Amino acid sequence: MKAIRRFSVRPVYPESLRPLQELALNLRWSWHPETRELLRSVDPEGWAAAGGDPVRMLSTVSADRLTALEADRGFRRRLALAVGELRDYLTDPRWYQRNVPDAPAAIAYLSPEFGINAALPQYSGGLGILAGDHLKAASDLGVPLVGVGLLYRHGYFRQSLSREGWQQEQYPVLDPHELPLTLLAEDDGTPVRVHLALPGGRNLAAQVWLLHVGRVPLLLLDSVLGENAPAERDVTDRLYGGGSEHRLLQEMLLGIGGLRALRAYCRITGHAAPEVFHMNEGHAGLAALERIRELTEEGAGFDAALRAVRAGTVFTTHTPVPAGIDRFPEELVARHFGPGAELPGLDPAPLLGLGREPAPARPGEQPQFNMAVLGLRTAQRANGVSALHGHVSRDMFAGLWPGFDPAEVPITSVTNGVHAPTWTADPMRAARAGKPLGDAALWELRRTMRTGLVQEIRRRLRESWRQRGAGNAELGWIDDVFDPNALTIGFARRVPSYKRLTLMLKDPIRLRRLLLDPSRPVQIVVAGKAHPADDGGKRLIQELVRFADEQQLRHRIVFLPDYGMAMASHLYAGCDVWLNNPLRPLEACGTSGMKAALNGGLNLSVRDGWWDEWYDPDFGWEIPTADGATGLDEGRRDELEAAALYALLEDQVVPRFYQRDAHTELPGRWLEMVRATLDRLGPLVQADRMVQEYVGTLYAPAAAAHRELAGSAAEELAEYCSRVRDAWPGVAVGHVAAGADLADHPGEGATLGRTVPVRVAVALGGLRPADVEVQAVTGRVDADDRLTDPVAVPLKPIGGQDLEGRWTFAGDLSFDRAGPFGYTVRVLPHHPRLASAAELGLQSLPDDDDAVGGGQGVLLR
Question: What is the gyration radius of the CA atoms in the chain, in angstroms?
Fold first, then answer.
């Protein structure tokens, strides 16, 4: 018989043991080994059965065991120490309080997914894991973040394989009452409800669950409520599921509903209101529209509200490809805004304009409402997630700033990091906390971690084959899968085509030779999920699985289904080499190799994402790429790069691992690389470094800009922008003279070490000189007279207007290198509260300056 209703029966704890619940309900236990070990000791068998989830374990502990623990003075003493230490961690000043002057009082961090721990499967891949690491590092540093997301009742999905190796998906139901969550409630105990108005008089309601991630509260909105109609109840069913309207409703609930939940949380708890709003990808972009609504209801005009919202907003883009961005038909979005729907007090036309793409993605297609475009237009500060990704993003979104070189597009970069306490294996952490490790001890430590991985592989492989229909009698061979002493390579990530799961299979004969070498064997563990709607990705998995199923190979290469945080921690700890071979430059950052590095794993990777900026031969190997070649089809490119991968394995990676010192029998050069990875690369890849960069380069400036636009300042800035927009068609660069062209400087030319005067006549169309900045832009020129590495030199106004109403600006150009140089002159808007010269998307250039593009500039906002 099947139950018609499910509920949890919780044990009643004695007073002395109630702090156990305090420890279990704060996810700091997930990265604090001492707390985790204390919780495990409550019921080791129950801990294992619960998958290391203390909330589930504590819900099943027996009354007899509770009685025994209450009588155990040593346990009660350890419990009191752990709780006291947690409370100190939550309240004591940390890096942020000691080192950040005029710090933002609070920062809202909105993300569609959060990977905090395997016990809370609310992530699909790198975006969610990054968000979880961001929160945990912020907690350790004392950064006052408040996270906002959605609670997906089916999570992403659980993955298994059919007998034929085809990916299958299961969606187990998550019960919030069995998770470390509490409902956000008013003082009288009434649960908080967030409401969104939908077309046709419908309503979407959501309750708000609160999760404690160390010092950081995380609010998760949940639409599974009886008052919702079935369609609205299912809005938070699955991560990245459903069609366009379903996804739009999810993003409305995250952005608009998330802001309303945040306001309720601050009102109820007294938490400081955020001064900065960080939108982690475009999915959260509608939060900006809700903030505009709040300000207009307080009396601000739309343009002033937009300027105020932009000042305090940070937008992070994580995708280097347009296909990774959510786009919606404008008519769909229009139905959900305005009278009878959400944000009824705002004119829908300018709202739609904020998300409208500057040009159709394909000929004949109508411009779409693009969530990344919305994020960039409503955030004054934006960033990619590695230096290379910042460059790619500036190229990708250059159309939003027409006329500007991609290098001037106001998108910076903060390279991702990973949370070291989460991803460093306990044996490595313990060993590095003690005496310095000698080579023998380091090699034995790596072998111990590799052995742990081998055991985990065998366990998971046996479970997978049983799910595929095999009986125990067929599975004896699994006891010999993998060798704890063999070179172990890991490859685990999502399975879109650009990550090239099957590149390693391009030359199966060559790969077999590597795997089956009797004296220097290689073993490869592979894992990853394809999106449920991506049959192409599923075919890649099936191809890999069929290869790994071959009887002569299956002890050397395995595919493990259901890749997630629990599996990942074993892979990062035990693999000697971490393989990454995406199509460059389509990997925005890619943090899995960082996690391997924290455990002494060496990277074997295409120079994409973070590896492009931090690659060093002491840390691993660079797979040569053919991304700069012209006329090369994808198949041929794969062949070339696969051949380069095989060559590296055959000629460098495998020999170095197996080359042993005659006296110590240790791989000395390999261990030098492991040590360099731990000591030099390890500090760079940490999320602490990443969050500190966000604070210094984005959060603190955003908070300062937010404060500067208080009161009438936002209206004044909006008035300036409007005035400049109206006047800009009359702004023009007139006659330009430099050096010998100037009557009072006859005969002067450009020579090394000298300065050359320059003057320009500029029509300002009714603007004043203080409203603009006139620049001479100079630098080396290429064969097409395009400036390379240009430097801008501000020119100052001299005198008043001439008879034609033009102003004269002058300055000096200097040249510190010999060779072909060039210059041009341009006019830009200037205001102290603009974050960059390109912010308004306006510039005026000489009409005949073909090298830069000419024209009068095009308005973006």
Answer: 30
How far, in Å, are 170, 458, 504, 562 from residue 164 at the CA level? 17, 20, 20, 16
Question: Which residues, listed in sequence order, are joined to residue 824 by a DSSP beta bridge?
Answer: 777
The dihedral over CA atoms of 835, 350, 841, 800, expressed in degrees to the nearest 10, equals -90
Q: Report the distance separating Cα 148 and Cα 221, nearest Å.
A: 8
Strand order in 821-829's β-sheet?
Answer: 731-738, 755-764, 807-814, 787-798, 772-781, 821-829
Q: Which residues are 580's β-sheet partners?
A: 605
Bridge partners, 780 (sequence order): 788, 821
Give the residue ranges of the chain where pLDDT is below 70: 4-11, 361, 740-753, 848-861
Extended strands (E) in 543-591? 557-560, 577-580
**pTM beyond 0.90:** yes
In three-state form (DSSP H/G/I as H, E/B as E, the rest C), the secondary structure along 449-491 is: HHHHHHHHHHHHHHHHHHHCCCCHHHCHHHHHCCCCCCEEEEE
Residue 366 to residue 356: CA distance in whole angstroms? 10
For 576-627, how does the pLDDT look when each residue is reduced to its tens digit (9 = 90+)? 999 999 999 999 999 999 999 999 999 999 999 999 999 999 999 999 998 8
Using a 10 angstrom Cβ sphere, with 0-12 exposed, 13-18 middle and 19 or more buried, the burial of residue 48 is: exposed
How far apart (Å, rounded) are the C-alpha atoms in residues 673 and 683? 15
Q: 510, 495, 472, 517: which is closest to 169 by C-alpha?
A: 495
Is the distance from CB of 548 to CB of 559 less than 8 angstroms?
yes
In DSSP terms, 381 is beta-bridged to 314
Q: What distances in angstroms separate CA 407 from CA 215, 320, 412, 553, one per listed residue?
A: 38, 16, 10, 49
